[in-house]
Amino acid sequence: MSIRRVNRFEQERGFITAQGIKRVARARDVSGLDAQVSQQVKQKPLKSLEQVEHRLLVVLHTKAGEVSTLDREVMYVARALAEIQGATEVHALVFGQPNEGLSWADYGVDRLHLVTDEVFDHYVPQAKAAAVSELYHELNAQRVLFGESELGDSDLARRFAVREGLSFGGELYEVTETSVRRASGNQRYQAQSELPQVMALEAGTTGDLDLEFVTAADSSVASAGVSVQAPQEDKFSLPSGDIPLVEADFVISAGNGVTNMDTFNRLAELLDATVGGSRVVVDDGKLPRERQVGATGQIVKASVYLAIGISGAVQHLQGIKDCNYVIAVNNDESCDMVKRADVSVIADAEEWMQGMIAKLEAAQ
Length: 364
Description:
By secondary structure, this protein is an alpha/beta fold. It has 9 helices and 16 strands.
């Protein structure tokens, strides 16, 4: 098993995930492959170790009970390093309560350690670093892997490395069995070094997230082992329209296929979603420039991205590459947005929105 490096901005790559999810596959017919993938998943052997000599630790946070694509990439890299080295277990320390449907066995995790105490939902970085340190020493882990994400993993990786006095590599975009690589000098240069003890990986470090096997994925509730007092916080909710796109958790986005913006805005209001749009919609003056999604607009990292009437230009797909779940509504089943989406609805945008509005209003 090797770590497969890809260009994370290259939209020509196409693949089907272990769950049968269609990813972008331009100029390539991906229809009818779901059944083949399901057949392959059923035939995957169970990976078990008779003797464990080393352990790798992955640290991540759940968001709304889910793990992001970046989290999966970090677990995949850890699994690949474990397979290259041999006799190595992969442990995952997870802050937050994950949803029951997550397939940790498919992610290559041998043992899952859950930190579910609600106090860690607050800003307690030193306590989190102490919790990571405790498990690190308990496992005598060889390396600890984080994602360069905005959920606190980037900061936690650096705090932990400083706390333990370990070698650190951040903003990594390439990992091999012996070295890591990162960009420097405003992306003009590349810096390479030996494998550090603590690694923080950028999105797109690896391309293939489908393992050839599954693991036992035993789980337990981890004890923080540190006394933590939640800070005093005042929480309040902003109207969805006031939330910047880069911070929104649920985004509904309009494309050229949306002919009635009043219908679109009404649906967004009922869903309490933050509004975005494609470049065509913004250029037509239907939405302000700060609501444009894409490489030339705003980079969206929402848990759910609902794209209505958007065909999926390369620049737009780059703007949603970090979204957890993409839902596409389009009458063209061969468009790139449908191929990228986790769930696709092949329908006329106006008819579908009117139907959704009717159901939502009836449920109020």
